[in-house]
Specification:
Shape: rod-shaped
Oligomer: single chain
Radius of gyration: 39 Å
Strand content: under 5%
Distance between the termini: 113 Å
Length: 159
């Protein structure tokens, strides 16, 4: 068998250590020319193996260097997120849900209790301006309690 003459796919397969169906696949994929010589087939097959080993692929797929760059970018992104969490700049969604759920519960309870706190005070008042002041004070107090701050409320507008 000479390298300058054509050979059967079965002979080529035996020489390079692949199955006959793999040799047929290589021809169909265009790796091997259907009318090539045995030497051309061996050279083309070796070039194909070198290309695969180096990570270079056909258009539309990533090569090894692109894959490494994507992996490095993703690892950097994960590191940045972990760093921000450690610094307290980011919190998890679960923590956020718990904190806001607690705030909303405090707000709900504070607002629902306003009626019972104001009922007795307002029932004893006959001055509408004093009633308005009591309601305003209660609302400002409730909002401060909800916000977790203590501020002097703005004066009520004069009528």
């Amino acid at each position: 068998m000479t390298l300058t003459k054509s050979a059967s796919r079965a002979a080529f397969a035996r020489i390079v250590g692949v199955s006959g169906s793999r040799a047929t696949q290589l021809v169909q994929a265009g790796v091997l020319k259907a009318d090539g010589t045995l030497g051309e087939w061996i050279q083309a097959y070796c070039a194909h193996l070198r290309t695969q080993a180096s990570g270079r692929t056909k258009a539309g797929t990533l090569d090894l260097s692109q894959e490494r760059a994507l992996l490095a970018r993703e690892q950097r992104r994960v590191y940045e997120i972990k760093r921000l969490v450690d610094e307290g700049a980011l919190i998890s969604v679960e923590t956020l849900k718990w904190v806001w759920g607690s705030k909303i519960t405090v707000a709900r309870n504070t607002l629902l209790n306003m009626g019972s706190r104001l009922g007795v005070l307002l029932a004893a008042e006959d001055d509408p301006a004093r009633c308005a002041d009591l309601v305003d004070d209660e609302v400002y107090g409730a909002l401060e309690h909800i916000a977790g701050v203590s501020q002097t409320p703005l004066p009520a507008p004069k009528q």
